[in-house]
Write a structure and sequence with these properties.
11 strands; 3-stranded antiparallel beta sheet; Beta-Lactamase; 8-stranded antiparallel beta sheet; alpha+beta; about 240 residues
Length: about 240
Amino acid sequence: MSLARHRPQRSAPNIEYPDASGEFDHIEHPGVLRAIARLDQVLPLRIRQSRLSPPMREAHRRLLRVFLETGGPPRAAWVDGVDYGDAVETLVEHELVVTDEAGVITGAYPFTVEPREHRVETRYGAVRAMCSIDALAISPMYDIPVTIRSRCRVSGAAVTLRQHGETVETPSNSAPVFAAIDWAAGTRGASCSATLCTEMMYIVGVANRDRWHGADPAFRQTLALDQAAIFAAAIFRPLVR
């Protein structure tokens, strides 16, 4: 799609910030808080997980661990005392996992088996992430060093990031890398894995970032990598704690 194509300017949606419960008191950057608030409107993962029964919550955490260590989902019951079919049905109902038409798990945020552009290399092997933000979530979730390999959605340039926790490093000769989100994709009514996640990307270079953002500033947001890592950790770390 040509970046030169002009679209009508739209008004930014009225976004409420997270409440003052203290959950995000450590986050000072307004862009990160805005991103959390926007994502909570369409995919409040930690809130959905909190509504599960304790056994099902543990099943979800164990499922994420299986994805991390094997690169894919379990094919049979993975927690003693929890039926495989019941677990899959419940986690799908709470929109914590994604399945194919046969009911086989194909993704559990932040992981996917689909051939997405975001590959994360860990001590266990390589896994695929749903989106750029999800790729940045895996290291802080499990406190492990990772290497992320992706590409710039605008130029196609290769992206290589090394991360441990909320610290992200790029090669010394690399142009600045940004995480970019087109929030308009979250209004399409389908699963976030097939809509919003496909519009969470990396962009290399300030000029590419500004041009992409300027095409629809009301709905497009970019974050520096340190901010994006804080955002990812805030969303995903509670799922495994």
